[in-house]
Amino acid sequence: MRFETLNKYVLKCPRCGFETEASPYIMRCPKCGELLDALLIADKVKLRWNELRGRGVWRYRDLLPEPNSIVSIGEGATPLIRLRSHGNAYIKFEGTNPTGSFKDRGMTIGVSLASSIGVKGVIVASTGNTAASAAAYSARAGLNCIVVLPKGGVAKGKLGQAILHGASIVDIPGTFDNALEYVLDTVLINGSADHINYYPLNSINPWRLEGQKTIAYEVFEEVGVPDYVFVPVGNGGNIYAIWKGFRELMEHGMIDHVPKMIGVQASGAAPMVRYWNGAGEAKIENPRTIASAIRIGKPVNWFRAYRAVKYSGGAFIEVSDDEIIRAQAMLGKEGIGVEPASAASLAGYLKALGEGLIGPSDKAVLIATGHALKDPDALLMGNANMISISSINELRNLVMGNAIA
Ligand SMILES: Cc1ncc(COP(=O)(O)O)c(C=O)c1O
Ligand SMILES: N[C@@H](CCOP(=O)(O)O)C(=O)O
Fold first, then answer.
1. Can you tell me which atom of ligand 1 is nearest the CA of 305?
2. What is the pLDDT of residue 282?
3. DSSP calls for 239-303
4. How are beta strands 168-172 and 144-150 bridged, if at all?
5. Which of 11, 88, 308, 351 is the most buried (most CB within 10 A)?
6. Residues with CB under 6 A from ligand 1
């Protein structure tokens, strides 16, 4: 069956070269099992960069799937904020997306596609943000949504969002890696989801990642090609998507090189760093970190993430939970509220600067993937500037006087 909405794409296996007509359902290579890349066919793309209209993800529709009807809540067009403390570093603040994370860029494409192929609902495994986003977009589309979560492993804000948007919440014992295994074993047969009424929208789905690649397009419009892009890495889809976006700009003659992609992981959950350093497979058991969004031991997109870093000339680095929390507080002092996983990109940037991996004059974009309100417990662990008073006079003294530093 031919899918008109995807007709400017082909699906290709990056490992064995298998190629097939684009389909919303086929996600893994039927020959070797690798995740398939959705590649634009150059002569089917009519890119009119100077005529781009609108804001956000769909501004770049020339380079995206084009479903008949679009399910959108206003995703993308996030601010790029220059750090006061480090003038060559810019925060791409994905926390301003409709559900507070970069996942919305992908869900607008994924849920639009799900809607146009006529499934009953969507299904995801999640550490929380994918669940919140899938729940909101499927509610918008009038589709059911099943979210499979590691019991006790999801921050309250995200769980609350999934509840608010009416998702069916299934929790399982174990980690996110177990949850994803449950979902993939349920929905994929020979790498395809064509037999099932619930459309999988984790990052194995190459169409969802097409939405996330628009981060690269926005960065390009805002500051050109930075020297480095720092990305927190969990399941590994986002760093690949951003690299793919820059690669496509290069393939269409808009730029002549891509930025070096730096994948940042928490040291207790750093399978990509382990693989990068030649210390074993990109897998660890029992990942541990305060940054629950990236508490992932077996990144399903490990090969995609690896290619993004390797072919851009970047690196994978790890940061401790203390460094993450310090970076979160530092951003807080600049008025930018991010959840712990998102602060990993600043923590990684500071580490890379400190170790001389990058220089202070290099232009770096740090992807701040999710909003601070996602994880209120992490915020409440910080040192509060709380002062208890019991009279108006005490407040007057504070305001008039010297009691507040
Ligand atoms: C806030 C946040 N940051 C970073 C990540 C990591 O992204 P990826 O899984 O695409 O590597 C996730 C989810 O995985 C996330 O929710
Ligand atoms: N942090 C993610 C983990 C799942 O990643 P996905 O990109 O495969 O959906 C989440 O928010 O659940």
1. 11
2. 98
3. HHHHHHHHHHHHHTTS-S--PEEEEEEEGGG-HHHHHHTTSS-S--SS---S-GGG--SS-TTHH
4. parallel
5. 308
6. 101, 129, 203, 232-238, 293-294, 339, 341-342, 369-370
Query: Is the CB–ligand 2 distance for residue 370 below 6 Å?
Result: no
Q: Is 211 in the pocket of ligand 2 (CB under 6 A)?
A: no
82-to-86, 152, 335, 342 alpha-carbon distances in Å: 8, 36, 12, 16
Question: Which residue's CA is the nearest one to ligand 1's atom 12?
Answer: 293
Q: pLDDT tens-digit profile of 290-300?
A: 999 999 999 99
Name residues whose C-beta falls within 8 Å of residue 164's C-beta, 6 or more positions apart in sequence.
Answer: 135
Which DSSP category does 28 fall into? B
CA distances from 236 to 79, 232, 257, 331, 395 (A): 23, 9, 22, 24, 50
**What band does 401 get if pLDDT is binned at 50, 70 and 90?**
confident
Q: What is the pLDDT of residues 133-169, one digit of tens each?
A: 999 999 999 999 999 999 999 999 999 999 999 999 9
For 165-206, the DSSP string reads TT-EEEEESS-HHHHHHHHHHHH-BTTB-TT-SEEE-STTSH
Could you tell me if the ipTM is greater than 0.95? yes
Domains along the chain with CATH numbers: 80-100+209-380 (3.40.50.1100)
